[in-house]
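Tip: read the tokens left to right.
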């Protein structure tokens, strides 16, 4: 017995020693991948010495003797800090995530292959101008130089993620940068998703279903969707909600999700310092590290500083000494779904304009980790690629024996958007900037510009020209064989959104009457005669929800102060306390208040109660609040109050009854989670930003290290926009928000301010992994100067590159 005990003791000690050694080795190799920012590297591919000066916040200031040398160094700096993120984005665009992450990533790969993101990007390389090609090649050489350094010096494979998700790190190619831009473009477009939702609503309740999207785009009265396909059979509608609200590795940029941004500017005459102001805050999925990366480049045309996306050698939002710019998605309908009829018994043929014809087809092999390779057949009709996986709801609107195809302006194989963005960095005034941006193809965007002479807003990109007599005006999917549903061409947009003498310009991605944030921004800017950098910051951080201010007086009109005082601890008293709080609330979605949580839960429960009996399983997929719809129902526009009646019940319910029932349901749900005291609830307890690491964020042992969680203010309709999950155990969790904020002051350019949502480094062990996160949450910023002396004086590290 004693001998057995001794052996067990020895084995236990040995196991502990082995675990400690394994932990030490893991730590050692992980730390080895932290870059040395004070090193000197002899490299090939540069014409002279280059300096990468790192600021306190790890922002690289890059100085070289040629533009190509500067882009080379930017590629190296991106790879030093974000190599894993860059390879993840590249794999997402190539359709090669499943090679590393297994079968769960296969649907993303299948869709990327069908969309041909990498093929169209590779073909578009030839369309770029010479300086852009040179920049892409130099940038790729810089990335590859760092990969070579990692391999030669055994620097921990470049990032600790590569140990946990082993993969070959292929050298970077110029087409890789264009492919990531294509991925960003297809993510920015939500036109196809909107078409699918309208069609699902039309099928669920043809007479009134599309009212849910009142004021959110469209072309007026629409035909019944099923009338477009006479005799066709549709499957019974299902809930297409994901089984879990955990975000997957492919959730960095998701085709069709839609992205947003605010951009606004004021002319010098409307500013205290007599210099134009411009602010921009592009939205992004909340991930760790953030999608955006701050950088300063000293180009031959002058210094340029602002936000980049690792993998691409351009400043998307920023300034140079003479010009400031901000980009936001343009609310344009750039895509259509065409429903193709498949010839019975011949899956390779479909109904064309002149009868049955063959799909263009080819097969591709998708490798899947720990599983056999999968062969997919990619098919293309005259309308575009077949994309059954573009949106979960497509299955509901595709009749049996039919397949969906996608038309999208971004399928161009001569896309010069990268050339436009490259030219924007070199522009010195709004005229030259507006001129180069006319080369944008996809994504279509609103570009806001400011210089000493004034401000301007311009929509750029390409849009389809639809045939006269188009059956839906682009608002719903159409029969693929209907010539009236064709695009007759694609035209370049170069439309000014602002008048030449505009003193203020404002851009959001919202459409039609739903442009609530635009209305709020307009009021904030026009209520002040003179603006300053601080007033622009305050506007950018504004957390007031115009939706709350609009809906609460309407929905609660017959509920305020109508009941006798109820006993403490009763549901009636909770309702009274909640209504009393909301009656005095100004609509600010402040994380420290209970009112935003009560309002959000009430409106969510109300919308669900209005639509569930009519829309059935489809209501599970309506995760976004539609204020225009609720407004129409409670004002009974065109009889919309019919939504308040519960079809299955005998009595006819009125809207006041439904509003009270929804409030009681919301209070009950909040009580179960946060306790009975209404005044103790806090919006920030439910509205938390969970910055999820795409590669490691779902691993139980590592998620506590690599994911960042913060309570934040704001909401879906505030200027400081944060979109929520909408379902599951954490329906108010923020899943997207302003991944970058910048305010540019041309009166004193070096007083311009910048911030990203996490930190510059993608290495979880770096102090720069999350050092900007608290500043971002609190609405604070950092400064970045174009003065070389200031950059060097405050440097915390200087990397020197010398020609080999």
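Filled-in amino acids:
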């Amino acid at each position: 017995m004693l001998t057995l005990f001794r052996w067990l003791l020895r084995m236990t000690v040995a196991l502990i020693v082995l675990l400690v050694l394994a932990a030490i080795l893991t730590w050692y190799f992980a730390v080895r991948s932290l870059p040395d920012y004070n090193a000197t590297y002899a490299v090939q591919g540069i014409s002279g010495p280059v300096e990468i000066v790192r600021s306190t916040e790890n922002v690289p200031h890059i100085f070289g003797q040629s533009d190509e040398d500067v882009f080379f160094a930017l590629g190296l700096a991106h790879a030093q800090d974000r190599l894993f993120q860059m390879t993840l984005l590249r794999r997402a665009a190539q359709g090669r995530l499943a090679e590393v992450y297994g079968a769960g990533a296969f649907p993303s790969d299948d869709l990327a292959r069908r969309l041909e993101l990498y093929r169209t990007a590779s073909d578009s390389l030839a369309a770029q101008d010479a300086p852009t090609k040179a920049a892409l090649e130099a940038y790729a050489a810089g990335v590859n130089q760092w990969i070579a350094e990692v391999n030669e010096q055994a620097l921990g494979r470049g990032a600790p993620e590569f140990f946990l998700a082993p993969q070959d790190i292929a050298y970077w190619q110029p087409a890789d940068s264009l492919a990531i831009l294509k991925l960003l473009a297809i993510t920015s477009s939500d036109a196809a998703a909107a078409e699918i939702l309208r069609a699902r609503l039309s099928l669920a309740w043809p007479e009134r279903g599309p009212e849910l999207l009142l004021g959110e785009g469209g072309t007026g009265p629409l035909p019944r969707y099923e009338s477009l396909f006479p005799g066709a059979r549709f499957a019974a509608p299902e809930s297409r909600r994901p089984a879990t609200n955990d975000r997957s590795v492919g959730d960095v940029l998701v085709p069709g999700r839609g992205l947003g941004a605010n951009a606004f500017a004021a002319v010098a005459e409307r500013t205290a310092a007599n210099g134009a102001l411009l602010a921009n805050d592009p939205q992004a999925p909340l991930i760790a590290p953030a999608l955006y990366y701050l950088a300063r480049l000293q180009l031959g045309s002058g210094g340029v500083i602002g936000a980049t996306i690792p993998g691409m050698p351009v400043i998307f939002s920023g300034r140079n000494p003479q010009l400031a710019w901000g980009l936001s998605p343009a609310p344009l309908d750039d895509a259509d779904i065409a429903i193709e009829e498949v010839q019975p018994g011949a899956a390779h043929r479909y109904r064309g304009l002149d009868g049955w014809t063959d799909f263009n087809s080819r097969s591709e092999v998708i490798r899947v980790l720990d599983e056999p390779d999968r062969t997919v057949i990619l098919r293309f009709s005259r309308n575009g690629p077949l994309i059954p996986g573009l949106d979960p709801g497509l299955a509901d609107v595709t009749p049996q024996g039919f397949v969906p195809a996608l038309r999208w302006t971004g399928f161009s194989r001569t896309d010069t958007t990268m050339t436009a963005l490259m030219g924007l960095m070199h522009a010195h005034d709004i005229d030259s900037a507006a001129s180069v941006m006319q080369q944008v193809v996809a994504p279509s965007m609103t570009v806001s510009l400011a210089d000493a002479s004034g401000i301007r807003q311009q929509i750029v990109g390409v849009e389809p020209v639809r045939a006269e007599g188009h059956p839906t005006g682009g608002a719903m999917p159409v029969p693929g064989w209907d010539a009236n549903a064709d695009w007759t061409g694609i035209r370049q947009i170069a439309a000014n959104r602002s008048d030449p003498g505009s003193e203020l310009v404002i851009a959001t991605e919202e459409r039609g009457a739903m442009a609530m944030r635009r209305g709020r921004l307009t009021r904030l800017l026009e209520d002040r005669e003179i603006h300053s950098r601080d007033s622009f910051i305050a506007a950018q951080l504004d957390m007031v929800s115009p939706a709350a201010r609009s809906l609460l007086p309407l929905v609660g009109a017959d509920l305020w102060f109508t009941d006798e005082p109820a006993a403490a601890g009763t549901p009636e008293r909770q309702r009274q306390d909640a209504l009393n709080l909301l009656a005095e609330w100004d609509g600010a979605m402040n994380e420290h208040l209970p009112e935003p949580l009560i309002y959000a839960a009430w409106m969510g429960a109300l919308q669900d109660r209005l639509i569930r009996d009519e829309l059935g399983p489809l209501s599970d997929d309506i995760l976004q609040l539609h204020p225009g719809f609720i407004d129409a129902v409670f004002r009974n526009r065109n009889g919309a109050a019919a939504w308040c009646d519960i079809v299955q019940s005998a009595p006819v319910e009125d809207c006041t009854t439904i509003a009270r029932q929804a409030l009681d349901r919301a209070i009950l749900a909040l009580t179960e989670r946060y306790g009975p005291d209404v005044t103790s609830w806090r919006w920030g307890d439910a509205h938390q930003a969970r910055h999820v690491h795409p590669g490691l964020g779902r691993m139980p042992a590592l998620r506590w290290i690599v994911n960042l969680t913060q309570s934040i203010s704001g909401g879906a309709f505030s200027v400081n926009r944060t979109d929520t999950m909408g379902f599951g155990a954490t329906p108010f969790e923020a899943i997207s928000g302003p991944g970058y904020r910048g305010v540019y002051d041309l009166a004193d350019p070096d007083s311009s301010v910048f911030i990203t949502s996490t930190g510059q480094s993608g290495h979880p062990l770096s102090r720069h992994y999350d050092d900007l996160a608290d500043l971002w949450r609190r609405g604070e910023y950092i400064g970045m100067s174009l003065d070389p002396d200031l950059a060097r004086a405050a440097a915390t590290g200087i990397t020197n590159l010398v020609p080999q």
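The radius of gyration is 27 Å. Residues 2-32 form the longest helix (31 residues).
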